[in-house]
# Entry
Amino acid sequence: MTRGEKLLLAHKTREQLEDYLSRYDLEIRLQSPPRHLEPIATVCALLLDRLSACTGATLETRAFADRIGTLTARAIEIWKRPAAAPVLRLVQ
# Structure
């Protein structure tokens, strides 16, 4: 693979990763169920691996990894909160 092809692949992967990170953030803000969050987190991890393979370990890949970690921690925090108990009332 030539240098130009690597740069083009890195650019496309970076754009896809940014897109999926924004989707992941949106899903977290919407408090989507974990079954909706897990595939997006998996895709982000795969795209980060592809970017690391193209560019090597750089500050940019480390920043993306930190961002994925932060989003994952937020998702776990949201879903580990105890749900409010429903208020039961007698209807006469």
The chain has a mean pLDDT of 89. The first helix runs from residue 3 to 29.
